[in-house]
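User: Hi! I'm working on a homework problem where we have to compare a predicted structure to a textbook description. Could you give me the structure for the chain below?
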Amino acid sequence: IYIILMIALLAAMIFIRRIIILKMRCRRFNSGTVSDRIKNIYHYSEQLLAILKLKNENRNYTEFSKKVEQHIGRDYFPIGDFDKFMDIALSSGFSRETPVAEDIKFCNDFVNTLAENIYKKSGLLRKIWLKIGNVII
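Assistant: Happy to help. Predicted structure tokens:
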């Protein structure tokens, strides 16, 4: 009985953790200033790209954008979408003009598409890890 109870408690803790993380991510994507929302979406995209072993180590965003488009464009998102996503993120962080609602929608749609395709192209164990262990997707 104790073993079954411990397994049920562990499963409940994992489930509750997942719900909390997903709600926090949703809140970060949908509240706050426009720049903060896009910054949070970009941070999530970095986590997703890290799963595919793509990291912006030298902080050259233009080169990184080309690298991502070249390596996973077409397979995980339409060609040109990451370039547009990066342009919106950079202008949001470094420009004086505020992104519009369509920009936030595009960024949100982009990371959702990327996340869905990473999940679809993953094996069973990785899918479990992405959903339960990492709570990336």
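For your comparison, note the following. The chain has a mean pLDDT of 90. The CA atoms of residues 7 and 13 lie 10 Å apart. Good luck with the assignment!
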